[in-house]
Design brief:
Layout lengths: L2 H8 L5 H5 L25
Length: 45
């Protein structure tokens, strides 16, 4: 399947910036859960 056929079948490509800039979506609340795990430095030795 070519990329052009895939884009046609899936409705084309949308850029994330365009999706984030959609009118009416500025009032959506987005909360991310806090991770209980903390990042640790990599052990490279």
């Amino acid at each position: 399947m070519s990329i052009k056929l895939y884009e046609y079948l899936t409705g084309g490509r949308q850029k994330i910036a365009d999706l984030l800039a959609m009118p009416g979506t500025e009032d959506i609340e987005f909360e991310t859960p806090r991770s209980p795990e903390l990042a640790h430095p990599a052990e490279l030795s």
